[in-house]
Amino acid sequence: MKLATWCCLSSAVLAAYSCLVAANNDTEEIKDQTAKDACPVRLESRGKCEQGGECPYQVNLPPLTIQLPKQFGRMEEVFKEVQNLKEIVSSLKKCCQDSKLQADDNRDPGTGDPGEEDDNRVTELESEVNKLSSDLKNAKKEIDVLQGRLEKLNLVNMNNVENYVDSKVANLTFVVNSLDGKCSKCPSQEQIQSRPVQHLIYKDCSEYYTIGKRSSETYRVTPDPKNSSFEVYCDMETMGGGWTVLQARLDGSTNFNKTWQDYKAGFGNIRKEFWLGNDKIHLLTKSNEMILRIDLEDFNGVKLYALYDEFYVANEFLKYRLHVGNYNGTAGDALRFSKHYNHDMKFFTTPDRDNDRYPSGNCGHFYSSGWWFDACLSANLNGKYYHQKYRGVRNGIFWGTWPGMSEAQPGGYKSSFKKAKMMIRPKHFKP
Ligand SMILES: *[C@@H]1O[C@H](CO)[C@@H](O)[C@H](O)[C@H]1NC(C)=O
Ligand SMILES: *[C@@H]1O[C@H](CO)[C@@H](O)[C@H](O)[C@H]1NC(C)=O
Ligand SMILES: *[C@@H]1O[C@H](CO)[C@@H](O)[C@H](O)[C@H]1NC(C)=O
Ligand SMILES: *[C@@H]1O[C@H](CO)[C@@H](O)[C@H](O)[C@H]1NC(C)=O
Ligand SMILES: *[C@@H]1O[C@H](CO)[C@@H](O)[C@H](O)[C@H]1NC(C)=O
Ligand SMILES: [Ca+2]
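Above are the sequence and the 2-acetamido-2-deoxy-beta-D-glucopyranose SMILES. Below is the predicted complex in structure-token form.
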């Protein structure tokens, strides 16, 4: 008889079955729930809270429809069958034992039974039970597989889905834009402009460059389709063009001694002197791998540049932390000057918000500007605009690796810059 194994198996399956119906052991609760199916989500108290702080609340979520294999549909049926069979078998067994006691004397082991009809019935049932038990085994396997799938579903969190959709949208936009760029070489410019077809979004200046825009001016960009679009100034000339300008200084017309809120939103005139805004800079750098180019010009007409192969600004929650890496260029790596003066991985600080590494004061207040201050600086392109050399606190536009910058000048004078500009472009952009 395989009764013992069968018993074991059936209780195991039963356990798995009730587990899937509800994580709760209380079967009354399950019936209760199906009766009042009207409210999709319910929270119920199940008694008093324990001292440990855990309260026996139960949340009932709306029903979830899952396609189960057909074996699963048969589970209940099979289970009932098995119950019936179990009863039959145990009564037969009892009956058998009774007759066995009587037949024991005139029977040799290994020969045919006297009660042959009953025995056939039992073998038949036994094979039936065996078949059912293997069915149940299969069903249990299916359940395990489903359970595994459910667990995997849990792991797919919303963030992953969002990133996936984002990257797909980015891909589509890129493909459409580049097709657009090829197309503009064929029909005349007027035909293109009169076309009713709206462009998809342009993430930054490099995508305007790709569709054939070659003049440096303002364009509307949408770095993240879920967020707003805004105007930027595009430099279509420097080093192949396609640059989105983040900051510019050229005549001192804009005051950079501003608050956190001002730096967040941006200020100034994007055709002249301005700060694009930390939220916008974050959006522009999060959707694409960007490189940063800094152009500087002093009052002697010396023009040098710094190129960083990596540039990223985090969101406001992370205090717009800066990441720059892989310097190249002629102006020197002032953003990562030394171990003690390093702007990489520093938070943004403004005169009214101290996130710097200077313990006894606010660098933003001291140097009257917003910047990724360390304790305090080896570079600051948002310093005060001086039209000539100046004395006192070094709160002007500053780049610590500039030729002759660190040498003391007669009379304690400090030199300043005539022009400064920060701009970004996707790392993989090919002009
Ligand atoms: C389910 O209830 C039974 C009897 O009420 C109990 O022995 C068993 O420990 C319970 N199982 C769980 C997982 O709570
Ligand atoms: C966009 O997706 C296609 C197909 O999946 C792929 O071949 C192509 O390289 C992707 N392009 C970009 C820019 O990711
Ligand atoms: C910067 O702004 C603050 C607050 O408006 C002001 O107190 C401070 O004097 C300003 N600093 C400079 C150098 O203009
Ligand atoms: C993008 O959206 C966030 C959250 O909705 C908002 O705080 C932020 O200012 C937006 N950025 C821009 C540039 O509009
Ligand atoms: C950095 O400079 C070197 C030497 O001039 C050059 O070969 C390399 O291509 C530059 N890298 C970038 C990213 O411009
Ligand atoms: Ca400080």
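The chain has ten helices and 13 strands.
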